[in-house]
Amino acid sequence: MDSADILIENQSRNTFENADFSKRVLDSAGIKGPYLLITSAMHIRRAEKVFVKKGVPVQAYPAHISALDFPIGFPAAIIPSINSLNSWENLLKEFIGLQVYKLTGKA
């Protein structure tokens, strides 16, 4: 692959800006979609909605899939531990982020 084939968007600070700036880069290059959207599995739902709303047709592909060596049950999810706090923090961030993006018309 030639380095000229790689387009970089490096100005965004969040998902909404990334979709906006990426659309500008792709439109100016005259490249037609659909495009492959690679992002963390936890973030993929919000990212896909934002890109589609911006008019960027994407095929979402999850990365950074968290795997557990054992199935997590209800007690493990609510008993305080570093793992459960991290999981809840990530889940709440994405849930609240998606709701805010919907309310503000970004997704």
What does this entry look like structurally?
By secondary structure, the protein is mainly alpha-helical. Helices cover 49% and strands 11% of the residues. The chain has a two-stranded parallel sheet. Helix 2 (44-53) links the parallel strand 1 (35-40) and strand 2 (58-63). The two termini are 34 Å apart. The model has no long low-confidence stretch (mean pLDDT 86).
Task: List the keywords.
single chain; 107 residues; mainly alpha; two-stranded parallel sheet; 4 helices; 2 strands; 11% strand; elongated
Helix count from the secondary structure assignment: 4
* Rg, Å, rounded: 17 Å
Q: Report mean pLDDT, rounded to a whole number.
A: 86
Number of strands: 2
Can you list the strand order of the major beta sheet? Answer: 1-2
The N- to C-terminal Cα distance equals 34 Å
**Strand content range:** 5-15%
* Class by SSE composition: mainly alpha
Shape: elongated
Query: Considering DSSP H and I runs of 4 or more, what fraction of the residues is helical?
Result: 40-55%
Instruction: Count the domains.
Output: 1
Largest sheet: 2 strands, parallel
| Weakly predicted, low-confidence segments | none
What order do the SSEs take from the amino end to the carboxyl end, as H and E?
HEHEHH
Can you lay out the helices and strands and say which pair or pack?
Elements: H1 15-29, E1 35-40, H2 44-53, E2 58-63, H3 74-78, H4 82-103
Parallel strand pairs: 1-2
Helix pairs in contact: 1-2
Explain briefly what this protein structure is.
The protein is mostly helical and 107 residues long. 49% of the residues lie in helices and 11% in strands.
